[in-house]
Amino acid sequence: MSDADTSSRQNPVIEKLEAKDKTSAIAVAGHPLHAMSVHFPIALVFGTLVVDVFYWFTADTFWLRVGLWTSGTAFFAGIAAGIVGTAELILVPGIRARVASWAHAIAAVTLISVAGANWGLRLLDPFAVLPHGMLLSVLASILTGVAGWHGGKLIFDHGIGLMVSPKD
């Protein structure tokens, strides 16, 4: 068999995977709800880290209150985005079949857990921000990057959640 014959045929496992539906099951006017909802917790996780740095440098208790709100909102917005993402994972066979989907889900659930711990710490003892809250904020930011990396792979490498019309 020549190289032209083998290069034109795709791996049968990949062909089977690509045949599965991977369009978003939860969308508004063709826009995937999970992709729209993750921006808020991402921004708030990084915002909490910035607020912690401001508190570290200024020692102004105003930043403790801001950190309580940003960490709590990041946690609850993350739960909302996670519910939609979990529904997509369960409902769409083309998403469920990809390893990157599971890596994204595991990183995201870990992130939500860390965000919840960060908020809970601030709720119980606002002055525990240094050093424990700061460390949780750094960890949450790293996990946001990991979850985002895998989420980006799903969209850009695998076309997950994209609803492309035939004319496109």
UniProtKB/TrEMBL annotation:
<feature type="transmembrane region" description="Helical">
    <location>
        <begin position="127"/>
        <end position="149"/>
    </location>
</feature>
<feature type="transmembrane region" description="Helical">
    <location>
        <begin position="38"/>
        <end position="57"/>
    </location>
</feature>
<keyword id="KW-0472">Membrane</keyword>
<dbReference type="Pfam" id="PF09990">
    <property type="entry name" value="DUF2231"/>
</dbReference>
<feature type="transmembrane region" description="Helical">
    <location>
        <begin position="99"/>
        <end position="121"/>
    </location>
</feature>
<dbReference type="InterPro" id="IPR019251">
    <property type="entry name" value="DUF2231_TM"/>
</dbReference>
<keyword id="KW-1133">Transmembrane helix</keyword>
<keyword id="KW-0812">Transmembrane</keyword>
<feature type="domain" description="DUF2231">
    <location>
        <begin position="30"/>
        <end position="161"/>
    </location>
</feature>
<protein>
    <submittedName>
        <fullName>DUF2231 domain-containing protein</fullName>
    </submittedName>
</protein>
<feature type="transmembrane region" description="Helical">
    <location>
        <begin position="69"/>
        <end position="92"/>
    </location>
</feature>
